[in-house]
Amino acid sequence: MELSSGEEGARGIFQSGNAVFMRNWPYAWALAEGKDSPVQGNVSVTVMPRGGGHGTSAPTLGGWQLGVSKYSHSKQAAAELVMWLTSEQEQKRRAIEGSLPPTIVSLYDDPDILRANPFIGQLKSSFDDAIARPSTVAGENYNKVSSAVFNSVHNILSGGLSPEESLIKLEKKLKGIKLKDTN
C-alpha cells in the first residue's frame, strides 16, 4: 500500500484507476476528465472533510501570485501581462480549459465555467471559509510542524501506533516546537 506521494504521483495513481480518492488541487480534475484518461466520467470533487466542534471544512488560502520585479527591464510590459492574466476574460478561459479556480467571485456562478467544470461552483465557499495555511501560523517552524504531522499520520496508516497514541505524541511534539521558539 502506498502511504505517501507527491501531487503528481498521487494524480498518476488516481488517474490510472488505482486509487479510490485523491487529495489534490483543482487542476487535476481537468486532467482526470481528459479524453485519454481511464477514469474520465467517473471523477467527482468535494470539499475537504469537516471536523472540529462545529463540523466545518477549512480550505486553505493559496494561489498563484503574480508580480513585477523592480529589477525588470520591461516593467510596463510585465505589468500589462499581470493585468491580462488576472482579467475576467483570462480567468474564465483558464477555469474552463484548465479547471483553475478564479479569483473573481462572480465567475463561480458563470454558466460556461460550471458547464465545463461543475465542481468549481463548490469552491465558492472557499472565499468565506478559508483559513491561513499552517505556514502562516508556524512561520519558520513550518517544516518541523509539517514533519511532525506527516509522521503522526504515517504512524497511524502504517499500523505503527493507534490514532490515540499517535495524536498524544503529536500534541507533545507540537507543544515542544512552540515552547522551544517562545523562550
From TrEMBL:
It comes from the Bacteria. Gene3D superfamilies: Periplasmic binding protein-like II (3.40.190.10). The keyword Signal applies. Keywords: Signal, Transport. Belongs to the bacterial solute-binding protein 1 family. This is Extracellular solute-binding protein. It comes from Parendozoicomonas callyspongiae.
